[in-house]
Amino acid sequence: KNIKIVVGNDCGSDFCQVNISVTMNSKPLAFLPPDTTIAVCELSEICLPAGISDINDNIVTVETSPGATYNLLAGRICFTPSQYGINTIYLKAIDACGASSADTMTVNIVPNKPPTVNAESNINKLLCSISEICFPVNITDPDNGIRAVTVTPYGRYDALSKSVCFLPGAAGNY
Q1: CA-to-CA distance for 118 and 137, rounded, in angstroms?
Q2: Position 173 pLDDT exceeds 90
């Protein structure tokens, strides 16, 4: 709407019009991922995706749980757990009008255990001709986190038969 201002005296009058556009503040948004469990080899910094959005672009304060930090450019909240177990993480955004939004998540930090591999230490094979040799290998990971199995310098791991196979080039120790 236009507001008209008129001024006058004995010599005449003048006026001007002012167009005023009013935008009402919208509260910001703070959001964290769903609750999760993370297996770690040691207690160290953990960073998770997080976000703050404000259509009015007037955020004045960001609060996090004690010991956590929020990085706006990276869109991450980071914390270093002091012990295994449940960690509650919160993120709160407050704008210049005092409107706020907060989100909370729980992160269960559990110890990750290393995998184990076992096979017979001495295997004797009599071959009539050069052919592939396979032997059983027991590989376990209590946390189901095995990314790869590598056999060096010869051979390959067969996950279906749970064995290592290789082709010897000649008689000898391998």
Answers
A1: 6
A2: no
